Automatic annotation (TrEMBL):
GO BP field: cell wall organization; peptidoglycan biosynthetic process; regulation of cell shape; response to antibiotic
Family recorded in the similarity comment: Belongs to the UppP family.
Entry-linked InterPro entries: UppP
Note: Bacitracin is thought to be involved in the inhibition of peptidoglycan synthesis by sequestering undecaprenyl diphosphate, thereby reducing the pool of lipid carrier available.
PANTHER family: UNDECAPRENYL-DIPHOSPHATASE (PTHR30622:SF4)
Gene Ontology CC terms, in alphabetical order: plasma membrane
Top-level division of the source organism's lineage: Bacteria
Organism: Colwellia ponticola
Source species taxonomy: Bacteria, Pseudomonadati, Pseudomonadota, Gammaproteobacteria, Alteromonadales
Name of protein: Undecaprenyl-diphosphatase
Catalysis performed (reactions): di-trans,octa-cis-undecaprenyl diphosphate + H2O = di-trans,octa-cis-undecaprenyl phosphate + phosphate + H(+)
Length: 273
């Protein structure tokens, strides 16, 4: 890959991983539309590491509190962790990650073979864009929002099942998890925060799988591309989380809904012409 391709693809990964517009779609599209070569396993690992470090660093206080509380629930560390909400939240996030892991393990070959096309991306971009818009309007008209504590295990698992659906390119992991969070009564901010926290084990799982594939493959490693890609993905993802949460309070999801609809219809036009 050229340096320009490295920068563009890393920026796309960092900016779109946490925005409700589908990172997989934006990483697949350059090869579909511009004819770029696939970036390879090593680069995928690098940008996943960058985005994972960004979300862990941004939510480092919440993650550390949850980790200590979770240890309390299994008899390690402070006993108060057994009854704290942070301990429950940690369990919800871990268990809600299982559906995506199972779906990815069982369906990855089918997805790779049949669903990584511009047409599928266009259709899922439109469908889940409309659903995000519906959920956002519904949340905007709500006078009271359900606190995170009232989400419950069942609600957390519903969001986890939605995250599994996001393995279909164009769906957007953050988009569909925020959509379900909003539909379950969470505020925009809490829906986004739960989605971001849920992304930590999900990205860890995906990155670990890609790392294992890389180790078992004979692919040559471009260390410059990996280093630069990881750094750019980290910086852009960290900035993206920060400014997205600010923008969310002021404008809601609608700018991203409009972007998805424009992108989806634009892709359909490109495919049909």
């Amino acid at each position: 890959m050229s340096t320009l391709e490295i920068i563009i693809l890393a920026l796309l990964q960092g900016l779109t991983e946490f925005l409700p517009i589908s990172s997989s779609a934006h990483l697949i599209l350059p090869s579909q539309i511009l004819g770029w070569q696939d970036q390879g396993l090593a680069f995928d690992v690098a940008v996943h590491v960058g985005t994972l470090l960004a979300v862990v660093m941004y939510f480092r206080k919440e993650v550390s509190v949850m980790a200590v509380a979770w240890l309390g629930t299994v008899g390690v560390g402070p006993e108060k962790g057994q009854a704290s909400f942070d301990g429950k939240l940690a369990w919800w996030i871990l268990l809600a990650t299982i559906p995506a892991g199972l779906f990815g393990l069982l369906g990855k070959d089918f997805i790779e073979a049949h669903l990584r096309s511009a047409l599928v991306i266009a259709l899922t971009t439109l469908l889940f864009g409309f659903l995000l818009g519906f959920a956002d309007v519904k949340a905007g008209h709500r006078t009271e929002h359900k606190p995170m504590e009232k989400l419950g295990f069942k609600g957390a698992m519903l969001i986890g099942l939605a995250q599994a659906v996001a393995l279909i390119p164009g769906t957007s992991r953050s988009g569909i998890t925020m959509t379900i969070g909003l539909m379950l009564g969470l505020s925009r901010d809490n829906a986004a925060r739960f989605s971001f926290l849920l992304s930590i084990p999900a990205i860890t799982m995906a990155g670990s799988y890609l790392t294992l594939k890389l180790v078992l493959s004979s692919e040559a490693v471009d260390w410059f591309a990996m280093g630069l890609g990881s750094l750019i993905a980290f910086i852009s993802a960290y900035a993206c989380i920060h400014y997205f949460l600010i923008l969310l309070e002021k404008l809601g999801m609608m700018p991203f809904v409009i972007y998805r609809l424009l992108l989806g219809f634009g892709l359909l036009w490109f495919i049909l012409n």
